Predict the 3D structure of the following.
Amino acid sequence: MSAVDSSLALYAVAHGKIILGGEHAVLYGCPALATAIPEGLELRCEITSAKQPLILDIPHWGLYREYCDTQAEPSDPVHAAVEAIFRGAGRAIQGAHIRGKTTLPAGSGLGSSAALCVALAKLALGEEANEQAIFDLSMAGESVFHGQASGIDSELALRGGMLRFVKGQAPERLSLPTKLDIWVIDSQHPRKSAEQVQRVAARMQRFPELSSATWALFEAQVGAMQSALLAGDAARLGALMDQQHQQLRALGVSTPRLDEICQMARRAGALGAKLTGAGGGGCALAILDPAQSHEEFARALEACMQEAHGECFPHFPVELSAA
Ligand code: PMV
């Protein structure tokens, strides 16, 4: 195994993402719709010496870890992902200080784990690596966080854009006729994707007779969402987001807080809202009425949150741009 040396890339970036529809179902062969968001992760790597540990330092995530080569099985998922990626690239766990800058919240369904795995894979494989090799290596880390991973988060973290994604197939890139405004609202309940993926798997094992109808409904909704997106029809997309949220609730991956956030977003004027990503906490998305300004929506949403909780959960807009 080669020691970490200057052929590591010294800089890497990766995107965060939002899933508009089809999360979880995408692991069972259904299509999903998702888009990269401007919030992402930037890693800078300083080569130290082979005697020094590998340091991963991402202050925004409260993450500071020192790793060195050991035979012990890592119990912490970040450590396990670092091991999977560095060992997969044939590198030793030593001799580098990796500093991360990000505005993405961690563990909130916005693709923080995939951004980390893609950016680490870029560093570990060096400047000359091709995109497929980066994607494949990032998946070794991402599978640690998701239990099993469809690849949708890694795809967006690596290449960005908006896409229809089916596991194992080349993604279809989508372009919109008109811009649409999405609002991201963070429940501030952290969760683990792998636990939610396992929860859905357990439900499917318990009710195998429901699985084909469940996934057929997801697939039909995502198909209708794609048509609404491509037609720039915010009202229809909103109604379908509401339906997706109910489906995800039926899978057991929503929470009272996420349900409440979706209701507050609708009360504030949104045309529809759903949880995004694995659920069990994390973020929800709302689609804005094009007739309502950002300021008006944000004011109304904040008033709802203040009234219910005496505080505002973090929230921010994401523009789905026209081609
Ligand atoms: O937890 P997140 O937002 O990274 O979303 C995971 C999406 C799933 O469909 C639940 C898992 C996957 O790998 O597709």
